[in-house]
Structure to design on (406 residues):
């Protein structure tokens, strides 16, 4: 049955190959525009999960699964860029807890091969691998119930939709009005000449770190957090290895007192809770789905927050930071650091500090920017887009309304 408090789902078929911002815009913008227009609610906030099917993982065995991180994060960045541009055009708030008229959108990657065939007696179940990306059967088994399910009205979209509904059977009783087809765009795949080869595969790590303020969590934050999660190497269930750690430095309240519209900055606890709740959508896999309405169990320890997912195989640790370095120079056992274009120089500074302490350098990964320039209809859209995904602008808008912070 419908419930407006449940998220809606948009199932997107396979992205263009080769991957580009222009190609993603042509393929996905019509569907995203239609769905965002439909789920927006004047009386309240809405939630939307955009699930993109794509053959992402490689390797025969679970513990040897690999992926191309540059391609995966570029796909996520491209979709969040399109979402942000559309929301700017339609005056839809994008931040978590945005209130009436806002849409809290989460992009989820599903590893799926269009040529894969399932036996007639196949029964979907939750089968986590050592990465943050799940297959279609696991997605359907752990992500439910839904308010609306949107599918793309073309051949590939119908194929993805039918497979998903088959796996969802028995999980949720759906009304016909909850199943909504929407128009798709143009997807092109260019045949590659010569022998086919996989893109360079990326190592995954037992300890990944990143930092930020994460005030009014918006698509730029979500891209950063998703990109970091993609680099986690999670142990298998029952493996005696310790859990992989996702360490997220969140700027302490004292460092934000001089921010513009500082009275509207969320508290550290609010920001950390939003970060963990968002990450839970990517990492937690429960046979109950989210139908019981439970939130992640957060352990407050020494002023920091911790939560564990997937039967204790993944630990998320939100650390309160009071300087530009945070845990990267206080915790030696970290493997990888995620940075954005704005914090690129910080990665080099971190490794210089670690070298001074005799510690090994971190592998530094830079995420793409959310850029409207390649996908908007004109230069004015870019400026509007930038203001919509800025925490400072969000605080300014709330101050102008004269309302409360939340």
């Amino acid at each position: 049955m419908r419930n407006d408090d449940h998220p809606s789902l948009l199932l997107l078929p396979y992205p263009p190959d080769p991957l580009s911002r222009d190609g993603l815009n042509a393929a996905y913008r019509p569907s995203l525009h239609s769905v965002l227009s439909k789920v927006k609610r004047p009386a309240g906030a809405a939630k939307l999960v955009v699930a993109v099917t794509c053959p992402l993982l490689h390797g025969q065995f679970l513990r040897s699964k690999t992926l191309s991180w540059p391609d995966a994060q570029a796909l996520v960045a491209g979709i969040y860029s399109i979402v942000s541009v559309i929301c700017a055009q339609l005056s839809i708030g994008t931040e978590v807890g945005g209130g009436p008229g806002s849409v809290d959108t989460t992009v989820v990657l599903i590893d799926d091969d269009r040529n894969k065939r399932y036996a007639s007696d196949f029964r979907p179940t939750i089968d986590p691998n050592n990465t943050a990306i799940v297959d279609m059967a696991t997605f359907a088994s752990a992500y439910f119930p839904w308010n609306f399910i949107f599918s793309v009205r073309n051949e590939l979209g119908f194929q993805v939709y039918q497979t998903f509904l088959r796996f969802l059977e028995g999980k949720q009783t759906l009304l016909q009005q909850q199943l909504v087809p929407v128009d798709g765009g143009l997807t092109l795949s260019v045949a590659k000449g010569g022998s086919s080869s996989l893109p360079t595969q990326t190592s995954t790590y037992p300890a990944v770190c990143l930092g930020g303020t994460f005030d009014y969590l918006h698509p730029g934050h979500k891209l950063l957090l998703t990109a970091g999660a993609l680099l986690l190497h999670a142990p298998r269930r029952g493996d005696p290895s310790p859990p992989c750690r996702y360490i997220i430095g969140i700027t302490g309240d004292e460092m934000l007192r001089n921010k513009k519209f500082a009275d509207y900055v969320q508290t550290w606890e609010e920001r950390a809770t939003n970060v963990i709740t968002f990450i839970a959508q990517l990492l937690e896999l429960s046979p109950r789905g989210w139908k019981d309405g439970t939130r992640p169990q957060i352990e407050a320890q020494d002023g920091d927050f911790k939560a564990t997912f997937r039967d204790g195989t993944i630990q998320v640790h939100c650390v309160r930071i009071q300087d530009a370095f945070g845990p990267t120079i206080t915790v030696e056992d970290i493997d990888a650091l995620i940075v954005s274009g704005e914090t690129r120089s910080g990665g080099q500074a971190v490794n210089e500090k670690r070298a001074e302490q005799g510690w090994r350098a971190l592998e530094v990964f830079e995420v793409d920017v959310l850029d409207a320039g390649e996908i908007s209809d004109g230069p004015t859209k870019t400026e509007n887009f930038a203001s919509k995904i800025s925490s400072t602008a969000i605080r300014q808008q709330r101050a102008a309304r004269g309302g409360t912070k939340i």
